[in-house]
Amino acid sequence: MSLQKFPNLYPAKQKPMETEKNHSRPVEESDVKDNSRRDFLKKSALITAAALTPVAAAKAAELHLDERIAGVFEKMPLNVEINGVAHNLMVEPRSTLLDILREQLDLTGTKKGCDLGQCGACTVHVDGHRVNSCLTLGIMVNGKKVTTIEGLAKGNQLHPMQEAFLKHDGFQCGYCTPGQIMSAVACVREGHANSELEIREYMSGNICRCGAYPNIVNAIQEVKEGGLAI
Amino acid sequence: MKQFQYQRASTQQGVLETIAKPGTKIIAGGTNLVDHMKHGIIAPDKLVDINHLPLKGITPTKTGLHLGTLALNSVVSEDALVLQKQPLLSMALKAGASPQLRNMATVGGNMMQRTRCTYFYDTTMPCNKREPGTGCGALEGYNRMHAIFGASAQCIAVHPSDMCVALAALDATVIVVGKKGQRRIPFTEFHRLPDDHPELDNHLAKDEMIIGVDIPDNNFAKNSYYLKVRDRQSYAFALVSVAAALDLSGTTIRKVRLAMGGVAHKPWRLFEAEKFMEGKPVSEDTFKQAAQIAMQGAKAYEYNAFKLKLAPASIVEALKHASGLV
Hints:
The complex is a heterodimer. By secondary structure, chain A is of the alpha+beta class.
């Protein structure tokens, strides 16, 4: 299946300052004041910046980022391995792992459902353990290994759990499916797939609005009984 | 979510120096904190990430078991020592949240989690816990999930934790550290009742952090049970939960520990019922009388009167399971 690319809503080279300047209106006194305020902000931000991260500071000054400078400095480096690929990113501390995956890396297989840790659609593995990526601040997975749904298949060969979900019709609309599959793989690996009851309990963090639960359980049971190391 | 500064703490001292400043919060698992920040319930200026401190261990001590504050809920629930010595704690942890959340949530974070009262979460509603002085939306509102013990006119919210109910029953002690050094707080006195200050969930000072929990050894392992009654079988907060632990000599109750969740602003230990049961025979009759004692002083609101029946029935059921009557 080819990965469909969605339009990037947050282009990296957005220039909000220029947009602002495009509004043509007469020059007012407030603009003059604004300018001096800007100047002050620029200077003071630079002083702070130089104390914190000189390289980034200099770079930001070069780019004439003005009061956007604060935002630039609030970004922090994030070194993380995702699906076997090392990434060196700059992220805002408030960006969740889910948003970084989807918006910065175009790994849109991981879904945003409730965005509040209630539905499990955003489930990924961090250092082999399943977590809700919507409640994980990206900056906190620094130095870790993340696996998303895109990292399960080997080339064109689907992961056994993906095959089993297809075979057993473990979905209808499919929106919860990446999270279900990530959780299902973890459920088997953890040793929590020994009975229907146990599977249901250990899959309870993944909600399926279509109600494909019986088929999901069947898929997991088949993989478990297949005994493959997954 | 409002932008904030993020700091990775490498020493306990570093944390203590930072957290006293206004607008600063500790982050560990983040499962509740990030949720609050998304809802706009709080907007810290700075988060101090304590995940790199060496506080993850689960270690035996001379008198019991020590849980580091950063031990994950999933790890504690499956730890061999916990399963052997304190199976009640494992049962309670497994009854809470989802496997994904338990892989993130920590011991200390579980204790610091806040109520799931819908009026607390809905920032358009009055809530004395979120915004002191605005009133309590739940008091005259849809209060089905709310307290029947220890509530005040300012707040009728309940503490949502399962783990804490077990730890309250197991006579655990919370170890906290501040600039003046360590302090040990009995688990039952860590959380507080709302009174006139529902904005305060517990007695941890602003400049202190939790570093762990001690659980003393006991003879409850064979006869423990955690019963959680909820709207669906899994992944829901308790309507009522009961932690029951018995130390039996034949069919006589030598010692008993009982605590309830979903009924009060803190894990609700049933001291009077325990006292009544000690020395009595294991029987449904004993359990029913104990449940009646436990319910003294209970007060329901418009939509949670069902808890007045559900709670005593749950106490009896949990005790029956713990003692092997069912």
